[in-house]
Amino acid sequence: MLQQQQPDDSTASQTILVIDDDPDVRRSVADLLADAGYQVVCFSGCSAALTHLCQNPSPAVVLVDLLMPGMNAWELIGQMRRRDSLAKVPVITMTGAGPQWGAPVPASMVVRKPIDGARLLGLIRATAGA
3-class SS at 60? Predict the structure, then answer.
């Protein structure tokens, strides 16, 4: 589904949070990121991810499915932006929704499903500064 990448030493200390309620998407994105050398922490819901974010060092990037049951990406991003410690953490959203998705992030920070692994990695590298 996603292309395998060679690990990059500059990514080894960077953690990416992956939040998606679909276990197959979570697994394939996590595998792609791990193969590229990132540390990956996965969550199936935004509430648990927010708890983790509040209790741990900030990740390089949060990658979140836009349409989630319970707390959705809009709510998660709102909660993050209201906390000084999380306000500047970059967020990339993933979606299978059409162009009218109304994402809480710029269109340049939205990755369409099915995910183009090369585009996702490029966006993460540009966003995380790796």
Answer: coil
